[in-house]
Structure prediction request, 227 residues.
Amino acid sequence: KNQVEQSPQSLIILEGKNCTLQCNYTVSPFSNLRWYKQDTGRGPVSLTIMTFSENTKSNGRYTATLDADTKQSSLHITASQLSDSASYICVVTVILISGTYKYIFGTGTRLKVLA
Amino acid sequence: EPEVTQTPSHQVTQMGQEVILRCVPISNHLYFYWYRQILGQKVEFLVSFYNNEISEKSEIFDDQFSVERPDGSNFTLKIRSTKLEDSAMYFCASILSPYEQYFGPGTRLTVT
Prediction:
């Protein structure tokens, strides 16, 4: 069964600190993996996207890693800011036999950054 | 930067009523999706739409739901007879390729 699991479920850190969020998936056939940031009551916004051949991708203070062998990904946030408080969602794309795409969403990690 | 838009931002309806949620995808995108997110829960896939027909739907997308692209620009989700448990945020998304998925801001549906 295609599943995406994230940990921790929630995380509280102090402003300026770093943190790492984890994503494990059992999805096949794998196409790509994205990390999204979702502010409360808003739509998800893409942070990074990686195909199976990419090990790391950065977007400012966000760095995502992917290990396609172990089917794990992480999102590292450097020098956290109050505005980083949000849910972070790992989404894996599957290409279906029909040629269309299906997106498997993780449960998300709710991050709270405190001043 | 192009964006997906959704209307209304908030819809309140009584149980049993029909609602239509509207989305305007990015103009050159080919694949369209509806998702829902019940408060405090994860985003759930409802349906995907390509070439003017449903390409896949989840078990959530039962006979009460329908989608259409009536005029080549709008992409709508209709719920025929709303239930309390349909209360959620509904997100539309569009893509040109699997590497470029854009979400709309969502419609908050409240069924009373």
